[in-house]
């Protein structure tokens, strides 16, 4: 900004104050983004839900108008309770019970993320939720992989997708999902997770599944410290051995001002990534409001913070939108967004060489150009 100092009529003196580079929505969209936490069954296009429901005879959609349906999902999600938030998934999983629907939903998800500027994504889902009409879990996994490959091809190679398979916490048989992760590792399945209601279903419910995965040199993240407090992050990290935490927002309970507790310090110092999902965290009541979200505090304290969508349909969000939201709320600039993106790339469940190439060849040059 150039300020003319006009006190002296004889001569004009000018001072130059550096202006922060404005972050426009279009630049945020163009910036390469890495997404580690996105649910396949939480990210359908409203129109696709309507068309698939019609085709398969799924009953009970609240409306068949796509705009109204999108609003319905958002209102349902914004409930302040994880259990209520999860109720909306009956309508998405209800229309994902055959191979062609799974291929379509998976392909569209990848194309939507690519159009949003996501260059690497890990998309997760629970295969056991797609078996109501007779599909095997293997058939479901293979159909989703086919859809992801189609979506990558349709996006002209602008995006790469890895798959995380979730076991539902409230169901037994986490081991069967762990087996699938190992079995399909060469087909693009890069890791494991447990999802669903957190309270009452801790990782210790079936610890042997995590032990098996570690013995198989497989990767896993765990939804933790979302509906339950910091102690659930302790179980995920210290009992199960999670490499990343889904959300992890309530780990902030172990931080008082600048005083970082032993557990939080362990998570920070071991560089365990926090897959934070700002809007979802407000919707499920994990944080009381966006203003109270610990993302900035924890980033400032050196945690490996990442920004994610969680459920694009349910919470009516995108990666570009979540970046814009935290920029507006916390005043983040390009350097912060670059850091979140590099953090996510470092924590991705792909090889070290691939992570380095993503950071050096894609992320760093693009953010250097954007910050100019
Ligand atoms: O934020 C979440 N916490 C716990 N479970 C979740 C969250 N978002 C989605 N899920 C559940 C609902 C889906 O059906 C399941 C697998 O994607 O994961
Ligand atoms: Zn989630």
Automatic annotation (TrEMBL):
Give the Enzyme Commission number. Answer: 3.5.4.4
Keywords for this protein: Hydrolase, Metal-binding, Nucleotide metabolism, Zinc
What InterPro entries does the record point to? A_deaminase (IPR028893), A_deaminase_dom (IPR001365), Ado/ade_deaminase (IPR006330), Metal_Hydrolase (IPR032466)
Reactions mediated catalytically: adenosine + H2O + H(+) = inosine + NH4(+); 2'-deoxyadenosine + H2O + H(+) = 2'-deoxyinosine + NH4(+)
Provide a GO biological process annotation.
purine ribonucleoside monophosphate biosynthetic process
**Residues carrying the site annotation Important for catalytic activity:** 247
Q: What SUPFAM superfamilies does its record include?
A: Metallo-dependent hydrolases
Name by which UniProt lists this protein: Adenosine deaminase
Which organism is the protein's source? Answer: Saccharothrix texasensis
């Amino acid at each position: 900004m150039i300020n003319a100092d006009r006190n002296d009529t004889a001569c004009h003196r000018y001072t130059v104050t550096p202006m922060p580079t404005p972050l426009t929505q279009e630049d945020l969209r163009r910036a390469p983004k890495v997404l580690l936490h996105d649910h396949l069954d939480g990210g359908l296009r409203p129109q696709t839900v309507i068309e698939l429901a019609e085709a398969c005879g799924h009953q009970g959609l609240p409306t068949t108008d796509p705009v109204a349906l999108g609003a319905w999902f958002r209102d349902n999600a914004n409930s302040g309770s994880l259990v209520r938030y999860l109720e909306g998934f009956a309508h998405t999983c209800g229309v994902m019970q055959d191979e062609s629907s799974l291929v379509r939903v998976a392909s569209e998800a990848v194309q939507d993320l690519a159009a949003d500027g996501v260059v690497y994504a890990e998309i997760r889902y629970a295969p056991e939720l797609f078996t109501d009409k007779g599909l095997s879990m293997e058939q479901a996994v293979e159909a989703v992989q086919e859809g992801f490959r189609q979506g990558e091809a349709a996006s002209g190679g602008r995006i790469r997708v890895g798959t995380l398979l979730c076991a539902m916490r409230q169901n037994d048989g986490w081991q069967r999902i762990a087996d699938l992760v190992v079995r399909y590792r060469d087909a693009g399945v890069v890791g494991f997770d447990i999802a669903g209601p957190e309270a009452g279903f801790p990782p210790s419910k079936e610890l042997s599944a995590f032990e098996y995965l570690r013995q198989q040199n497989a990767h896993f993240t765990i939804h933790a410290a979302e509906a339950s407090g910091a102690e659930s992050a302790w179980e995920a990290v210290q009992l199960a051995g999670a490499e990343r935490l889904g959300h992890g927002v309530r780990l902030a309970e172990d931080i008082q001002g600048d005083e970082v507790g032993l557990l939080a310090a362990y998570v920070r110092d071991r560089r365990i990534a926090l897959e934070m999902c700002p809007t979802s965290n407000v919707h499920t009541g994990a944080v009381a409001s966006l203003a109270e979200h610990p993302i900035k505090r924890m980033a400032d304290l050196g945690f490996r913070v990442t920004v994610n969508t969680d459920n694009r349909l349910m919470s009516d969000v995108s990666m570009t939108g979540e970046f814009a939201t935290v920029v507006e709320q916390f005043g983040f600039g390009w350097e912060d967004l670059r850091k979140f993106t590099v953090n996510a790339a470092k924590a991705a469940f792909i090889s070290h060489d691939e992570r380095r190439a993503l950071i050096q060849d894609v992320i760093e040059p693009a953010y250097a150009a954007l910050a100019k």
